[in-house]
Amino acid sequence: MTSFALYRRLGGVVFLDDDRDYLEMLAEVMPPDWHLRLSVRPVACIALLQQECQRDEADLWSQQEIIRRWREGAGLIAQILQYWRDDGTARLALMRVCVLDYAMPAMSGLQVLGALTDWPGARILLTGRADEQLAVSAFNRGLIQQFIPKQTPDIGRHLSSVIQRQRHQADPRHQQIWRATLSREQSALLGEPLIAQALEQFALSQGWIEHVVIGAPFGVLGLNAQGGVSWLQLEPADKLPELAEMAESQGWDAAILQDIRDGKKLANLELQLALSGLHPPEARPAWCITGATAPLYAALFPVPEEWCPGAAHSYARFIASCGGRTLHD
After folding, report:
1. Helices (H), 192-281
2. 201, 207, 209, 214 alpha-carbon torsion, rounded to 10°
3. Nearest alpha carbon to residue 59 among 210, 275, 214, 228
4. Domain range spanning residue 186?
């Protein structure tokens, strides 16, 4: 069943090939906003990714701690925002995809992958004509996600498309962590193909480099490349009267209350409560995402700047600080 990813974030791509000219050609045609690392030495590449396993485990632990504290009564929204501010861009620098040549003189691509059994990223093997049967076997055994012949026409464009699909895949470990915050009904809504597709398109339109779906309150926190955060509030149709009652208890006028009941507007009462009530709640226009069993209403709210990572700790600043795409021996 297709479902909207509960947690997704960008990550880096490491290229390993003993052909320096080929590496430099690939680097030139990859999108400029990708974090790349180019390596000509298998041993150095293995060391890099093995070290990242420890950092990745520490990041998973940080997310699990958020859930533990939530179960003890701490709010999710404030914790996630604190996690983003404290981490800066360290988690975004972790490699998500490894693209490596099969035929290298010191060590074959499959030998490299054999040393990376604990590394959780996606693996793409570049092959020559003589290597394709070995690559098919590796794919069937689950050692790689895909293989691409080096002779593929317009390989730069084709490879970037394949990598992008892998970068966009959600990590199953993250899905398991954040599913704990959702009710069965919320999970079912996110699993409806029309709703999942609409949310995917919306996340892309917002330029989110990272997002987290939570169930208490129900919605999506999205982080953009400039360090800004927005809250996509989600309300099932049967929850609109409850939201209107909450707004009425705050003294909102009758016209806005009726708009909330009709699904024309949503109020960010729970968001502002999660952010210590430092800003007054507001109502914003809502739209309906029609599912197969029930409609889901959504409205987008900006998160105040003081709660966001900001430009100084943004992905855009991180990419700019990486400088040119140089080879690592």
Report:
1. 193-205, 240-249, 254-261, 269-274
2. -50
3. 210
4. 174-311
Strand pairing class (295-302; 229-236): antiparallel
Q: What is the pLDDT of residue 130?
A: 59
Q: Is residue 5 part of a domain?
A: no
User: Partners of 39 in the beta sheet?
Assistant: 16, 328
| Rounded alpha-carbon distances, angstroms, from residue 127 to 29, 67, 113, 273, 281 | 19, 43, 14, 55, 56
* Res 143: pLDDT: 76
The Cβ of residue 34 has, within 10 Å, a number of other Cβ atoms equal to 19
Domain CATH code at residue 48 = 3.40.50.2300
Rounded Cα–Cα distance for residues 268 and 291 (Å): 23
Q: Could you tell me if 241 and 154 lie in one domain?
A: no
Asked if residue 1 has pLDDT above 60, the reply is: no
Instruction: Give the C-alpha separation, 117 to 161, whole Å.
Output: 25
Q: Which two tokens stand for residue 125?
A: 């093997």
pLDDT at 129: 66
Q: Name every residue whose Cβ is closer than 8 Å to that of residue 228 and which is 6 or more positions away in sequence.
A: 302, 303, 305, 308, 310
Q: Is 191 helix (H, G, I), strand (E, B) or coil?
A: helix
pTM over 0.90: yes
Q: What is the pLDDT of residues 171-219, one digit of tens each?
A: 999 999 999 999 999 999 999 999 999 999 999 999 999 999 999 999 9
Which range of 39-53, 55-69, 311-325 scores highest in mean pLDDT? It is: 55-69
Distance CA 237, CA 155 (A): 47
